[in-house]
Amino acid sequence: MPGKVWSYITEKLEKEGACHFSLLDPDPLKNSTETMVQMATLAEKAGTDALMLGGSTVLGNIDEAVQAISDAADIPTILFPGNLNGVSGHADAMFFMSLLNSTNPYWIIGAQALSAANVKMLGIETISMAYLLIAPGKTAAWVGDAKVFPRDKPKIPLMYALAAELLGFKLVYLEAGSGAEGGGVPPETIKTVCQYVQIPVIAGGGFNDEASVVKGVEAGASIIVQGTYLEDHILKDKGEGLRKIVKALKVAGSKRV
Ligand code: 1GP
């Protein structure tokens, strides 16, 4: 039986054509729980479809923040773990990810094997996701020992995305890295991958304005993730900017339904 969050995502994609996910970093050394809850609440009000909780450099225990955010939000909370310490039983689901273009087997299957029993015992819904890092890759690429895909070579991530689909992953994430310069994942890369791959494609890293988000959806991405944009704007404008971006994303998505 498909999990609740997976059903929520697939039904939304069917009806609305595209989704917006907000990435929040629950690391207590970076943000207080109170701030996280405030950001999550504003993002939900602005119309984001789900909250992704995680980051590449989790230094503290995320349990308290994940619990508080999940209690405050009605939309799903989904863990986006950067390592073993990114797991918490308080989220609604977890992206069970493999960094397929890492040069280090730890990030492809090692961390997953080390955490699998714990994840099973927590009973949290898992959604398998192939994670592919495109230049510049930023912190995620450094931590994940990735051989990042060049931005002008879309056929390389396409090969990996096709392999991900054949291996049974439910989602493929094209990631340029949090804070990536250059307006997100190149539309040409998204377009090439989406042309041949049937599983939903998530794109994130550097989508800092409405135009880049809309371009990502028009190129074929099913889900666009924004993290830095929220950190920079959501508390200041109370989510007004995000509301406009989500609205524009939904208009672009509706043309695909
Ligand atoms: C990072 O793709 C996400 O994993 C979000 O990136 O912080 O650049 O929005 P930004």
Topology of this structure?
Layout: H1 4-16, E1 19-24, H2 33-46, E2 50-53, H3 63-72, E3 77-79, E4 93-99, H4 105-122, E5 125-133, H5 138-143, H6 155-167, E6 171-175, H7 187-196, E7 201-204, H8 210-219, E8 223-226, H9 228-237, H10 240-254
Parallel strand pairs: 1-2, 1-8, 2-3, 3-4, 4-5, 5-6, 6-7, 7-8
Helix pairs in contact: 2-3, 2-9, 6-7, 7-8, 8-10
The structure holds SN-glycerol-1-phosphate.
Number of helices: 10
Principal-axes shape call: globular
Helix percent reads 40-55%
CATH superfamily, called what? FMN-linked oxidoreductases
Q: Helix and strand string, N-terminal first?
A: HEHEHEEHEHHEHEHEHH
What's the architecture in CATH terms? Answer: Alpha-Beta Barrel
Given helix and strand content, the structural type is alpha/beta
Distance between the termini: 25 Å
Q: Which small molecules are bound?
A: SN-glycerol-1-phosphate
How large a portion of the residues is in β-strands, by DSSP E? 15-25%
Strand arrangement, major sheet: 1-2-3-4-5-6-7-8
What does this structure look like?
- Helices cover 46% and strands 16% of the residues.
- By secondary structure, the chain is an alpha/beta fold.
- It has one domain (4-254): FMN-linked oxidoreductases (TIM Barrel), CATH 3.20.20.390.
- An 8-stranded parallel β-barrel has the order 1-2-3-4-5-6-7-8, surrounded by 9 helices.
- Strand 4 (93-99), helix 4 and strand 5 (125-133) form a beta-alpha-beta unit.
- Helix 2 runs parallel beside helix 3 (63-72) and helix 2 packs across helix 9.
- The longest helix has 18 residues, at 105-122.
- The mean pLDDT is 96.
- It binds SN-glycerol-1-phosphate (1GP).
